[in-house]
Amino acid sequence: MPFYTYILHSEKLDKYYIGSTGDLKDRIDKHNRSQKGFTSTGKPWILVYSEAFDTKAEAMAREIQLKNWKNRDRLEAIIKRNE
Q1: What are phi and psi for residue 11, nearest 5 degrees?
Q2: What class is the 3-82 domain?
Q3: What is the pTM of this model?
Q4: What is the pLDDT of residues 13-61, one digit of tens each?
Q5: Engineering a disulfide at 40: which of 22, 34, 60, 80 sits with its beta carbon 3.0 to 4.6 angstroms away?
Q6: Cα-only R_g, the chain
């Protein structure tokens, strides 16, 4: 079973959300149903990027790497390369 690192975008907030999961479709659905936390304010969240990994540890490491960038231009560059 693959694990994923993903980036969601909210047009409403014009913000990105970075996460990792073992079930990409279910996780996105949960973000869009959430009634609390950061993602509850930006619905609908649209998947704009994902990467598959063999292990949860790899997916989480990539999530941390992307979050540490703290640079919108770098995130948007990898999103555009993926289109």
Answers
A1: -65, -35
A2: alpha beta
A3: 0.94
A4: 999 999 999 999 999 999 999 888 888 999 999 999 999 999 999 999 9
A5: 34
A6: 12
Burial class (CB in 10 A: 0-12, 13-18, 19+), 77: exposed
**Alpha-carbon separation of residue 67 from 1, 43, 71 (angstroms):** 24, 20, 9
Three-state SS string across the chain, please?
A: CCEEEEEEEECCCCEEEEEEECCHHHHHHHHHHCCCCHHHHCCCEEEEEEEEECCHHHHHHHHHHHHHHCCHHHHHHHHHHHC
Please report the pLDDT score of residue 82 as a whole number: 80
- 53 neighbors 5 (Cβ within 8 angstroms): yes
pLDDT at 83: 73
* 1 confidence band (pLDDT: 50, 70, 90): confident
Question: Which amino acid does the sequence have at 28?
Answer: I
